[in-house]
Specification:
Keywords: NADP, Oxidoreductase. Belongs to the aldo/keto reductase family. This is NADP-dependent oxidoreductase domain-containing protein. The chain is α/β, with parallel strands linked by helices and 257 residues long. The protein has two domains: 134 residues, Alpha-Beta Barrel (TIM Barrel), CATH 3.20.20.100; 93 residues, no CATH class. The chain has ten helices and seven strands. A seven-stranded parallel beta sheet has the order 1-2-3-4-5-6-7. The longest helix has 19 residues. The N and C termini lie far apart (42 Å).
Length: 257
Amino acid sequence: MGYRLVDTASSYRNESAIGSALQAAFSNNSSKLRRDDVWITSKLAPKEQGFEGATAAVGRSLRALQTDYIDLYLVHWPGVSGAAPESPEHRRCREGSWKALETLYNQGTLRAIGVSNYTVRHLEEMKEYAEILPMVNQCELHPLCTQQELLRYCRDNGIVFTAYASLGESALLGPNTGIVELEDTAARRADITRAQALLLWGLHRGAAVIPKASSAEHLRENLAVLGLGLSADELAVLDSIDSKYHRHFCWNPSTIA
């Protein structure tokens, strides 16, 4: 279909399957697909935090993915497994993790490095120890979680904001969401689905969107948004939802010290 980005993580437990699938594609002469045609993103699990842990984790991901470099590698979460939310262990470990990623970036093993689920506070803290600031911050983003301050901060600091859970973990696609503004916006547009309206909203907000899909039909539907758009009025209606229905469907990192 034209997709060329694979977003995975050690905690998803599918790196080996992805590695095998990609190798099969690369060895298929009819596909003419090469390693440098595909962008692979993977992530460091909370239990792998720290300099030594991160270094070892990247090695495991490389072997599982059957590649000698990863295009983008992220610290998946600003905390470390097993520590209380207020523990200073979180900062110590994420600093060590970042130092490991910087080392591997300088060696060429990681082509780009970044973070995921980092708040403005966590990103500001990085300026105290990072020699290389994160290139990407991957966070939950949808009309119920607009992340306006974080989006603005990333834009001002040259950080690419990547949106996950753009469809609210599919909760925003149901027949009775109770969110009249969302349902009406999609209903007035015969040329787009509700999923496409949500993805377009994220793109209009300046985010890269990487929605999950479980069928070929949905994969095609998602990719088709590249030829569509939303009006200023439609964007304003979707922007207004957060103030009335704000929620995270996934992790909320604001409590992590």
